[in-house]
Amino acid sequence: MKPAPPASSLLTHAFYAFYDLHRPAYHAYAAARLPPEEAQLSVTQLFDLIAGNWTWIMTQHPSAWAWKEHTRAVAYRAGRLPTPAEDAALLHDDLCLSLDRIATITGTDPAQVTALLAAARRIRHRRRLGRSSA
Questions:
Q1: Torsional sign, CA 82, 97, 61, 32
Q2: Which of 56, 40, 60, 51 is nearest to 18 (CA)?
């Protein structure tokens, strides 16, 4: 169920466009890190928070603000804060999102996403080397 929209018609349309664009990826991310009920609850609470503060959020970078809140809430529920590189790798490698889609939902630049993915690959490569030499 979609949260209650902000008061103004223009703000309502902007909110629902944001919701429709971001919710599927936000839910997939939460579902990859949490049990199903926790993931659903986390995403519902996030969009309730966004709806209640939409006018103010619109003065920020909405995608960046929402992603920061979302990852913070998921990390709290999961008991572990992943690095931005781990998140980028999850979104790209496991959830099969494109660089542009990741940039859109996280509110970052595509070049930053590329850098985060490169960092994640270096870390995985080092871990593999460490295991093979043991």
A1: negative
A2: 51
Q: Do 65 and 109 meet the contact criterion of CB atoms below 8 Å apart?
A: no
Asked if 87 and 102 count as a contact pair (C-beta separation under 8 A), the reply is no
How do the domains of the chain map onto residue ranges?
1-81, 83-134
pLDDT per position as a tens digit, 54-74: 999 999 999 999 999 999 999
The model's pTM: 0.86
Whether the CB-CB separation of 57 and 65 falls below 8 Å is answered with yes
CA distance 99 to 113: 6
Q: Taking Cα atoms as reference points, which of 22, 29, 30, 32 lies closest to residue 2?
A: 22
Cα separation, 64 vs 83, whole angstroms? 16
Cα gap 16→98, rounded to integer Å: 22
